[in-house]
Amino acid sequence: MFTRLAGIATCIATSLALLAAGTLPASAASPYYRGEQGGPHSYLALGDSVPFGFSPLASPEDASNFTGYPDFVADWLGLALTNASCPGEASGGFISLTGTDNSCRPYRARFPLHVGYESSQLDFAIAFLDEHPRTKLVTLTLGANDAFVCERTDGGCSPEEFRAVLADLRAHLNTIYREIRDVYQHQIVAVTYYALDYSDPQGVALTQSLNDVLASVTRQYGGTVADGLAAFRPFAESAGGSSCEAGLLIRLPDGGCDIHPSPRGHRLLAAATGRAVLAGTAPGPSPASMLPGAA
Known about the structure:
Elements: H1 2-21, E1 42-47, H2 49-52, H3 69-77, E2 80-83, H4 91-95, H5 104-110, H6 121-131, E3 135-141, H7 144-151, H8 159-181, E4 187-191, H9 201-220, E5 224-226, H10 228-237, E6 249-251, E7 257-261, H11 263-281
Parallel strand pairs: 1-2, 1-3, 3-4, 4-5
Antiparallel strand pairs: 6-7
């Protein structure tokens, strides 16, 4: 069994290197989650505009115009993707249709998501997982919109208000994961946020604070973490700290960048997700040495 898993790890590591480089063809998808039962297992992607794949340059009238990191992960792992994410989703609105929202509810009222539902995203996730017991992976990116809502308050988001945001996010994530774990016991991977400018210590610290909450609660419920901040860092630092200049964010016609990942940025997040999947399935620490970039 360990020989077989080591072989799988080698295959996955090779695929991850190709995926991060943007050269992984569809035919190279890992067979890891295909297997004895035949056909692909399900993969449920949850969260905000990052997993949704939002771009201000694409028409929102057709959700297929948007491709995010879950699409690359699903292709690589050979999983059937259901992407329930919603642009502007905050953690309170994720749980309840009356919870704090940044822009998800008005977006849903006007434009289609990748999958349609009338409930909260959490209620959809629970129903989906209950109805699809062959689901093998759930990913979640959530929390940035909580901070964006705070920033829009008069006077901006004070340190005390930001600490309250983090406390609310932690409480909401506990609710989310507790309800998910009631119906689902396979892999959960939290995909954390990247920085726009790695030369800005304050901005990086704020991003890290959000990531720390998402990561710690995820691990509390037996999940693993794909480190988005680390995934972008070496490429951004090679461009003076700018994720925009490194080509990791969507370039706008005026020459600046949107805050959302470019295709290259999404591939890096997908590669980090793949490494987290491997870390959560491999027996013991030895296969980690096979990962791209390992010492």
